[in-house]
Amino acid sequence: MEPKTYEIVDSVEKLHEALPEQHSMDDLVKLNDEMEEKICYLLGYNARQSLFGMISATSIMADGKLFVVTVVDVITKNIAPVVKKRVEAMAAAVEKHTAKYE
After folding, report:
1. Is residue 66 part of a domain?
2. Which of 31, 81, 85, 102 has the fewest CB atoms in 10 Å of its CB?
3. pLDDT tops 60 at residue 43
């Protein structure tokens, strides 16, 4: 994952808390489009139809979260083990190459 990916995940997770109490329909449409675009970028393909064909990114779920936050939670849960392995491999490589300088 690229560093920008973490910024997207972070911004989507904070989105629900940052929504204003009052907003126009145009604001919601724009917000919805932006969130769908970010999820597509995060996944690396156009997921609009498969993820958001029946429900919009800004739909509120039964637990009070936006649908897009639920999607990010699932993505994060699934990529966490991969990220952990990559970080561990990177740390091992750094240790290997810097050990002689300690």
Report:
1. yes
2. 102
3. yes
Chain-centre distance for alpha carbon 12: 6
DSSP string, 36-58: HHHHHHHHTS--HHHHHSSS-TT
- Per-residue model confidence (pLDDT) at position 10: 66
The mean pLDDT value for 83-88 works out to 88
Cβ atoms 9, 78 nearer than 8 A: no
For residue 19 the two structure tokens come to: 């929504």
* The residue type at 25: M
pLDDT for 72 beyond 70: yes
Where in the sequence is the domain holding 58, given as residue range(s)? 3-77
Give the Cα separation of 88 and 82 in Å (integer): 10
pTM, full prediction: 0.61
31 occurs within a structural domain: yes
Other CB atoms closer than 10 Å to residue 46's CB: what's the count? 13
Q: How many domains in the chain?
A: 1
Q: Is residue 101 part of a domain?
A: no
